[in-house]
């Protein structure tokens, strides 16, 4: 992993970002800090494809694995006309979607415990990608029984 500052127009939200779906999240709690200091905690990114609404090659583009709220806050500052500097990013090695999803979930678990549906979606994706229940449990510091219980939620829908 390496650290770098990446311009906002070179970043997009990864499909594997566990909080990357739906409307933009509420960032009112982050805005004052981002306005005053910019982004302090680096986003987790990986080399990524060009979004469908951007022409050109993928060279120099990155997708955000974790840090959607910080990115959304920077976009809000830019829309307000504020000065936006390149964003600090921790660039993950190119890897599979399971690695990116795991990184996204680890960061989000440290911030706010995701709801069980979000956990279920992530756990199912990791198991489908070849991770064992025990591997998932070890990665997140939870009991295998908890992973099994959350994973089993989908069988009851």
Q: How is the secondary structure organized here?
A:
Blueprint: E1 2-6, E2 11-13, H1 31-37, E3 43-47, E4 62-66, H2 68-79, E5 87-91, H3 97-111, H4 116-128, H5 133-140, H6 144-152
Parallel strand pairs: 2-4, 3-5
Antiparallel strand pairs: 1-5, 3-4
Helix pairs in contact: 3-4, 4-6, 5-6
Task: Supply the key terms.
157 residues; 6 helices; five-stranded mixed sheet; single chain; alpha/beta; globular
Explain this structure:
The chain is of the alpha/beta class and 157 residues long. The chain has six helices and five strands; from the N terminus they run ββαββαβαααα. The chain has helices at residues 31-37, 68-79, 97-111, 116-128, 133-140, 144-152; strands spanning 2-6, 11-13, 43-47, 62-66, 87-91. It has a five-stranded mixed sheet with strand order 1-5-3-4-2. The protein starts with a strand and ends in a 5-residue tail after the last helix. The model has no long low-confidence stretch (mean pLDDT 79).
Quaternary structure annotation: single chain
Overall strand count? 5
Number of helices: 6
Report the β-strand fraction as a percent range. Answer: 5-15%
Secondary-structure element string: EEHEEHEHHHH
Supply the helix-strand structural class.
alpha/beta
Main β-sheet description: 5 strands, mixed
Q: Give the proportion of residues in helices.
A: 40-55%
Cα-atom Rg, whole angstroms? 16 Å
Low-pLDDT residue intervals, each spanning 5 or more residues: none
Strand order of the largest sheet: 1-5-3-4-2
Gist of the model:
The protein is α/β, with parallel strands linked by helices and 157 residues long.
């Amino acid at each position: 992993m390496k650290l770098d500052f990446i311009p906002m127009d070179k970043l997009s939200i990864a499909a594997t970002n566990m909080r990357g779906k739906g409307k933009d999240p509420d960032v009112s709690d982050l805005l004052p800090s981002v306005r005053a200091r910019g982004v302090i905690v680096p986003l987790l990114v990986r080399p990524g494809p060009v979004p469908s609404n951007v022409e050109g090659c993928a060279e120099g583009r990155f997708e955000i694995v974790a840090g959607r709220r910080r990115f959304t806050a920077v976009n809000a500052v830019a829309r307000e006309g504020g000065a936006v500097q390149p964003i600090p990013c921790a660039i993950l090695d190119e890897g599979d979607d399971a690695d990116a999803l795991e990184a996204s979930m680890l960061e989000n678990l440290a911030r706010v415990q995701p709801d069980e549906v979000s956990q279920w979606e992530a756990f199912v994706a990791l198991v489908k990608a070849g991770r064992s229940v025990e591997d998932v449990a070890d990665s997140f510091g939870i009991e295998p029984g908890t992973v099994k219980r959350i994973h089993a939620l989908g069988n009851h829908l």
